[in-house]
Amino acid sequence: MTRKNKNIVIIEDDEGITRLIKFKLVKEGYDVKSFLNGEKVIEYLIRDTPDLIISDVMMPVIDGLTLLKEIKANSRISDIPVIMLSTHSHESAILECLRAGAADYITKPFSTTELLLRIQKTLLK
Description:
By secondary structure, the protein is α/β, with parallel strands linked by helices. It contains 5 helices and 5 strands; from the N terminus they run E-H-E-H-E-H-E-H-E-H. A 5-stranded parallel beta sheet has the order 2-1-3-4-5, with helices on both faces. The radius of gyration is 13 Å and the shape is globular. The two termini are 17 Å apart. 26% of the residues are buried.
């Protein structure tokens, strides 16, 4: 099953995690762009709207929750699904992201196979 033309943006400050996710997604046929933090991402998203965003919660400059809220508040990009990644597995952190508009929430460490399945599921919605 080809996934050409599906563009995914990764926003993750851990370069190792970014490389791993990017490798798996490119292997599956996705086009991937990555950022190390949320700074200047909104400008990019408006200019080159992706099909999906994967964002870390804990990042320098602009954290993932703040970025998620900015995305959902901007009518030009609010419909882009966002999957949040975090080491925080407590219910309050998960619910806060889901209430802010996240399509899904995955705790680290995670299986790349699970991530791929959640991406596929999210893109089908």
